[in-house]
Amino acid sequence: MFAQVRGTTLYFDVDGTGLVPDGPAMRERPAALVVHGGPGGDHTGFKPAMDPLTDTMQLVYFDHRGQGRSARGDPALYTLDENVADMEALRGHLGLGPVVSIGTSYGGMVAMAHAARHPGAVSKLILIVTAAHNGFMSQAEAFIRNHGTPEQQRVCQRLWSGTFETPGQMAEFYAVMGPLYSRRYDPAAAAAVRGRATYAPEPLNRAFGPGGTLRSFDLRAEVAGIQVPTLILAGRHDWICPPAFSEELHGLIPGSQLQVFEGSSHTIRADEPEALNDAIRAFVQA
Fold first, then answer.
1. In Å, how far are 86, 179, 217 from 154, measured between CA atoms?
2. What local confidence, expressed as pLDDT, does residue 77 receive?
3. Which CATH number is 2-135+217-285's, of 3.30.930.10, 3.40.50.1820, 1.10.10.10, 1.10.357.10?
4. What parts of the chain have a pLDDT lower than 70?
5. In the prediction, which pLDDT does 50 show?
């Protein structure tokens, strides 16, 4: 499905029912906006791992502008600020009240900025393996420099230099980096996920390359004003957004909850999927 918002076309998909029979009445489940990471990827990597959550929420997946099945456009607008504004416009387009906002990695950066800038739009905020400022990047570069294989160092150089030219090069990056993204890396399962994905190099280059938007962003002052219930989830072995950044977020957002998954790296939904969904479900139902 497509939504025309803010001069672009966003792809979205809905999983699960909003109204369910409950004895003599109909009960409304909360709607959740699922915000994908990258940038340069799409929402498909969250399916089917998050499907079990439809017993608790109606999940609304969407692709950021210029990515996935959403329309391409002016690359100068492939920014976090535009993604935040698009997210709010999509919420309004769908006629949703305050939503559960679930953001992973880069999607967590978008989700936290959205919650800070549109406090009435979010009922509960869930931030997964993310960071509030650009400090994560220098740590990730140092980790690869000190611990990465030659192949991992090679593909990461494309990331740091912003020189991805084709979707195939992005797929190669995720294939080579897979064992770092997931502690339970399954090559066959990961290949299937990559095969379903739609990659777009330009948003990724503009975020991570020299002068990229993620090299200077800092949301710490904004997120300190978030007042909605917030759950922060981290992977103990995460190479790109280590737990220290989640711990920092926990200190910044008043009343937030923090949970670190001891058996996970960056892709908790692959390493500890049942525990991840249990944590999200319990938080939403609380």
1. 34, 15, 25
2. 98
3. 3.40.50.1820
4. none
5. 95
Peptide bond into 48 cis (omega under 30): yes
According to the model, what pLDDT value does residue 240 have?
98
**Cβ atoms of residues 16 and 59 within 8 Å:** yes
What pLDDT is recorded for position 164? 98
| pLDDT tens for each residue of 252-264 | 999 999 999 999 9
What is the value of pTM for the model shown?
0.98
87 and 8 in contact (C-beta within 8 Å)?
no
Q: What is the pLDDT of residue 201?
A: 98
Backbone phi, psi, residue 2, to 5°: -130, 145
Closest-CA residue to 221 (of 138, 133, 108): 133
Neighbours of 31 (CB within 10 A): 21
pLDDT score for 20: 92
Predicted local distance difference test score (pLDDT) of residue 266: 98
**Position 135: which residue type?**
G
Closest alpha carbon to 201 in 254, 140, 155: 155
